[in-house]
Amino acid sequence: MENLHRYHRATVGLWRRAHAGLRPPRGRECLTWCAVHGVLAGLRRLRDVPALLAAFESSRAADADFALVGSLLPGVPTSPLFDEIREAAFYLRWRELGGGP
């Protein structure tokens, strides 16, 4: 992580905090984690950290991620839970790419 620009280090920190602090709505824990892993499955097409960071900034990719999350958690307020779900998925992919803790 030391080789990342400060902005990207802050972004990864945001992902890490979202993953650590994710609190699913009561009774929707399983679906919340399904949403995280659904977004993660889509992120696995990204083969390196620069692509992952670029995807996080893409509003088109965010719209698709939020549509997936919304399909699994209908009726749940979108903010900030949907952002946290997406960020948690990015953190998991970051870890898979060897980005560190």
Key phrases:
single chain; mainly alpha; 101 residues
Helices and strands in order:
Layout: H1 6-21, H2 29-43, H3 49-57, H4 59-72, H5 81-96
Helix pairs in contact: 1-5, 2-4, 2-5, 4-5
Walk me through what this model shows.
The protein is mainly α. It has one domain. It is built from five helices and no strands. α1 packs across α5.
Biggest pleated sheet: none
Report mean pLDDT, rounded to a whole number. Answer: 91
- The secondary-structure class comes to mainly alpha
Please give the domain count. 1
The succession of helices and strands, N to C, reads: HHHHH
Tell me the helix content: 55-70%
Contiguous uncertain segments of 5+ residues:
none
- Range of strand content: under 5%
Number of helical segments? 5
CA-based shape? globular
Distance between the termini: 9 Å
The value of Rg in angstroms is 13 Å
Total strand count, please?
A: 0
